[in-house]
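Q: Convert this sequence to structure tokens.
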Amino acid sequence: MTRTPRLNDLQLVLLSHAAKSDAGTLFPLPASVTDDERTRRDLATLLKRGLVAECAHAGSGPAWREGDDGRMGLVLTGTGRTAIGLGEDSGAETAATDVATAAMASDARPPAPAVTRCDLILGLLTRAGGATLTDMTAATGWLPHSARAFLTGLRKQGHAVSRERIDGLTRYVIVVAQ
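A:
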């Protein structure tokens, strides 16, 4: 069983920021974080724990450090993704480092649109056969009462959410008008 490391609020913000970046990079830092001694200390802790890794930083923006081996940035590792509850992709560390290096070299790339939990549930409900409550909770990490509340909100917004009992399972479907 893998032990999840304890993280302080700043470390969680830094890791979440990296996870939102399409390349998994920590630099530039989020606007809410100042580049001070405490931030540098927490970044060093994340690096020591293996939650982030160094990679070449070819861009002109801020870097983690500059040394004989050039400018170095930080990228989120699979262990870091697991620590904040995102799971680890196979080969994620190598791929993330390659993508991060390319992204830092280009320096400016528009962020990829984020897929929200609401988008996930809407996708499940509009597919053929709809979705069970278990499907929705597994996809979003919500508790069953939260998924039901979201369905109620969809109905209030005017979506035609129907509930059908198929093979002993309750399935929810959004009927799309043709």
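Confidence is low (pLDDT under 50) at residues 89-109.
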